[in-house]
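Components:
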Amino acid sequence: MSKTPGPGGVGSTFLTQLHQLTTKTTTTTTKPSRFSGAENINLVAVLRSKSSLRAPSIDSPLSLEGWSREEGNQPAIEPEQLTTWLTSTYPPPHRSIIIIDTTSSSLIAESYPLFLRSGIHVVTANKKAFSSGQSLFDEIYRITTADPHHPLVYHESSVGAGMPILSTLRELLATGDRVHKIEGVMSGSLSFLFNNFMPLTNKQELLPWSSHVLEAQRLGYTEPDPRDDLSGLDVARKLVILARVAGMKIDGPDAFPVQSLIPKPLAHVGDAEEFLKRLPAFDQEMEALRLEAEAEGEGEGEGKVLRYVGTADLDSGQIEVKMVRVARESPFAGLRGSANLFAFWTERYGSEPLVVQGAGAGAEVTAMGVMGDLIKVIERVGME
Amino acid sequence: MSKTPGPGGVGSTFLTQLHQLTTKTTTTTTKPSRFSGAENINLVAVLRSKSSLRAPSIDSPLSLEGWSREEGNQPAIEPEQLTTWLTSTYPPPHRSIIIIDTTSSSLIAESYPLFLRSGIHVVTANKKAFSSGQSLFDEIYRITTADPHHPLVYHESSVGAGMPILSTLRELLATGDRVHKIEGVMSGSLSFLFNNFMPLTNKQELLPWSSHVLEAQRLGYTEPDPRDDLSGLDVARKLVILARVAGMKIDGPDAFPVQSLIPKPLAHVGDAEEFLKRLPAFDQEMEALRLEAEAEGEGEGEGKVLRYVGTADLDSGQIEVKMVRVARESPFAGLRGSANLFAFWTERYGSEPLVVQGAGAGAEVTAMGVMGDLIKVIERVGME
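Structure:
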């Protein structure tokens, strides 16, 4: 899914949302619910890759309204320096320090253990810490479950943006249900592509695959280079996070079969433009798959449809990401627009899975997922 | 949806689940995650309508394994006595006291303000406190938001059993999203009836309405008297809770249009048996509605289907429960078995709603919802 233009789309959106939530509104009747403790939040630093904006002390925090107009007043800061600066300027336990990571930086992800060991809570939309090596995941979870006063880490928006996916999975496990299988359409851009390439109701004119890719890119549904979505890596990362939270050990997003939708000869050709120019030559392959799926039905307009699905079978330990043919009654078939869908097959839910679906990408809903986590941290640690 | 036979189905299931969670299992490799603090939970009372089983002191709590085999050792206890006994035997703030209500009793529901004012947390599956008069709802919420140290009330399983419905709605609101509309198939038994009466794929032989009601009752999908489901009151109560949590003021479940599926002449006839015997005389009415829905499609097998839907339009303030004709692509049309579906139309989610669907009734998933709430209370108040 496309990012909001400019650096830090999710970060900016998050700070805007926080400003709205912490401002007393007197003119509207339907003001957003302010959460308990919101008025005690102080913004003390906004960090960018090239500069940082920092409050000199707790008595002069940054303005939630004005931060975006201010230039960074200091050079960029490394995670180690940041930790030292935060813990010395705002020594715990008198204040709770929360780092909010809206980047996709591996460097920052690798610093979570440092943050956490220093007593700093982490709220993050960054998939890297949880979907790269198993050891980083384990280390983070070891620190955050070590004792009753451990710092907290929340990363709801690393899977499905603001949708309650990880919290739902965690609750299933914590309450003693047994999760057999997790399955989903986990990419907004690939959902959009397949829902348009093979819609459930054949009212639209069917167009070749490449024209949908072109359209999706034009509309901002894919990354500027659509191959970043078509590789399936983003879906694989989400699936790794889900499977690990459910207890599986996985070396990383390349440790299991992931079907790339990039034709092999185009994997490394030039730029996005070059890729899109050459993609139509491969339309016949997708067309053959479409006809194959359609032929599996029981009558005209009753065929199966193609969807791009990630599956973690926790009973067998199998995990994979691929194009599948699904029956028209399947919830995957009925998806529209760029909606994501996550299905949990569990012991207690029985023959029908617990399903959560909706927009799983975009700055607004991702920032909202981060905000939800921040509220949970504040509820648990208290803010007075 | 049918209750587990015998008194206190959800209560028994909950205690069984709690026993499993708080027991160290050494033989299985896939043991349930034990939540932090589980080992510090003491069961001090099991209350039934006719008797009560109480621990004399914190040093000799009831056995989570043995409670069901023990007869109540004391007479039933009224809410006032219970409060006095709990707060004097286990004086706060040294211990957190949590009352778990798995009844559907109005009397107990009306005592929540007393419990809460006495510093006792409430976790409940009981719809009554939140779906009856607006003033009781307001009083409960006033107490639980009065100050940072207020006791907590959680009632996730009062709507959609263990599914994350209220927590999702709350997070949308708390993070500043604007909820336009909440819509859903909110009854397992009515979902089962309509999914079978008008399945999306017409592979089954279509049977008259009354035969589905009979079958649903026989399989335990409805209450012993199906009229308890067909009246729509249970759906209305869930809708009241959702709408109120979203900020609406509603006098009660009879303060808005609720379409009863009980033919008027049969509303007060004899018992369930008598009702079921006379129901076939009204099959023609439902058949006419089925044909009407079917005729709205664009070709054979493309017609609309009937579903029983509750809607709260927060923008207009309209709330209602009724049979509606939905297009075949609608997520409501694709429901199977007795699954519930809740859709949240919001500002940030845009053109496609956030949807949660799955089993919304049954002792196991309801008890799991109660357990999830208990864990949240423990996480917030700490248990050491």
